[in-house]
Amino acid sequence: MAYTNNRFCWHGVISSDTAKTTPFYTTVLGWTAQEMQMGDETATMFSASDSVPRAHTRAPAMEGEPNYWSSYLRVENVDASLASAIENGGKVLVPATDIPPGRFAAVASPSGAVFNLFHEADPSSTNAGDCDGAIHWVELHSTDTATDLAWLAASFGITHQTMNMEGMGDYHILLSGETQVGGCMAQQHEGAPSMWLPWVRLDEVDSAVNRAAESGGNVIAPLFDVPGIGRMSILADPVGGVFGVIKPAPREA
User: Fold this and answer.
1) pTM above 0.90, yes or no
2) In DSSP terms, which residues pair with 13 in a beta bridge?
3) pLDDT digits (tens, 9 = 90+) for 111-169
4) What is the domain class of 8-120 according to CATH?
5) 252 Cβ partners below 8 Å, 6+ apart?
6) What are the residues whose beta carbons fall under 8 Å from the beta carbon of 217, sequence distance 6 or more?
7) What is the C-alpha separation between 64 and 207, in angstroms, rounded?
8) Rounded to whole angstroms, how far apart are CA atoms 104 and 113?
9) CATH homologous superfamily for 135-248?
């Protein structure tokens, strides 16, 4: 069973100092880190509480590449999706390339939000489950939501539903058919670039935020509660990679 199309299936932590960030993530998120052979190279994989890998870490591969979280969107055909992304106003950062796990390309939305297109080499790959330490949600924080949303629809067929979040403006649920695959909202931090923000599910989110501050990270958005969604905070690792942590609200029976 392959990954679900138009869903984020993998994540990378791009860090200029992995000696700092690897222990940061194992301490803050409770992840385990393990070195694995990837072709001719060795990569560090992060696993959640179910021991299933969710992300890897690597140093910047290109000059000027920032410290950030890099998310991988599963597509049926990387080359075709890349061509569509460029045709509709996106930018290619890394052309379609084969790597041991599959084929990928790095693109940026019209407003500059960077992510990867990916198709797995192993057709038996399956979506990872939701557990403590899993990637719970991915959302686009855009400096131009209208243009980015139109681009997602034209390039990948990802549509959206809009709801008003009091005090925060419109929030857009990204849809592949009727399946929710992510979110989109206007960038809330003045001067910050467009970015894809992954949210990590944690059962003990308050203590994780404290551990982040004690481990060299920064609290970008202090703990806050969103009714029906959960308890949340936005953090940065010691070299500036930004991510969110969330304790989801209990589902109504």
Assistant:
1) yes
2) 57, 69
3) 999 999 999 999 999 999 999 999 999 999 999 999 999 999 999 999 999 998 777 68
4) alpha beta
5) none
6) 24, 28, 235, 236, 237, 238
7) 34
8) 17
9) 2,3-Dihydroxybiphenyl 1,2-Dioxygenase, domain 1 (3.10.180.10)
